[in-house]
Fold these 2 entries.
Entry 1:
Amino acid sequence: MKRQAGFTLIELVMVIVILGILSAFALPRFADLGQEARAASIQGAFGAIKSAASIAHADSLVNNNPATVTLEGTTINMINGYPQAQTAGSGGILDAAQVVAADFTLGGTPGALATSVVTVTAVGATTAANCRVSYTAAAANASPTITVDVSDC
């Protein structure tokens, strides 16, 4: 008599049950990696803006506070020794930090140059106001205000 090899129905059902339990616990851990990715991209933009402001300020100090400095071939407009808060393509902080609209939602509040604000928001953020970097231009004898909020990306 020939004996057939294979799995019984009970063994197959048990494997399906075990896989179902594992997926029920694993799926929530991997379901929303987008939120962490948006927060990381905003943290990266924050670091780039902060570094660009410091580098431009150092260049400005070395050259006796000119109206513009050149970083990697890009002319950056300065105010009070720091990059101006201007939108991308205007020679402000976003150009210095190489932050572009293809990667982020760019905005801000125009005003007097010393009070202008530029914002960089993650695309697809749950709450845009809570997933952004904000750069406020330097006032006289002060440094710019650079804030980051990633509480609801």
Note: Residues 115 and 137 are 6 Å apart (CA to CA).
Entry 2:
Amino acid sequence: MDNLNAVPQQLTEYRARRLIKAKEIHAVIRQLADKYRELYTPVNQFIEKSPLAKEKFQLNFEVGIVDTGFQEGLFEMISHGVVGTFCGVEEGHKMLKGILARHDFNTEGGIEAFLTEMIDALENDKRPDGKRAKVSDQIRKGKSSLELYDAIFSQDYLKPRYALRMGDKELHQLSPGERGTLLLVFYLLVEKDDIPLVIDQPEENLDNQTVYELLVPCIKEAKQRRQIFIVTHNPNLAVVCDAAQVICAELDKKDNYRMNYLSGAIENPKINKAIVDVLEGTMPAFDNRESKYLAR
């Protein structure tokens, strides 16, 4: 009888020890998140110090501890059967989403509150007409209560994740052109090396306005400390980036596909003509367009 009377106290002690161990696990996850922040310190410093990054690109970088699949893992363990807080497919998912949304996994207090609420939800039916529920009655066939508790308290579902946003979009939500632009920004502004940089067709998947408003300012800033070579089909880049030297390449199909090259500054009459021919479709076409612009 004495042994039975001691069970409630022992259970309380074991639960307390389990929570302490869970906090120790979470501390390791937080340490890993801190390592992520340390590794990406240059990115944050760049964003804070660069008007281009903050104002034009609206870059934002943060590291957080996020849930990577708790809901899927839980419902592999427990059934949507006839008892418990998570009874019913739609109702059960909605109930769990509410619990997940209420807690911040970045803090020790947040994970403690989450674990406490989860165990309470498993042991007590939180539906309006619910009563105390046995965890064993909710376990799927082939699973065990031990596996369920291990899955919850091990916190394998929590991972540090870095999120780089441009405006209100995360990196994975950006279009190929936007991702390419962002990558170029880092090469041009974050990378502080002074060795020459070769960029192949930066205008791909970008419209002229994006090139002019976002890409050109970065190129202009980077070329103050390093030499930049741009291979492009868009002469507009050479003009707006104020290229020190332009090399025009032309394939002569009639002369056995011979490549001809013309080089010089933008002010060079031959280079100037080549740029206008490619960009505007010859000088008369440019004059015609100019007159239309001025007429407005």
Note: The CA atoms of residues 66 and 158 lie 6 Å apart.
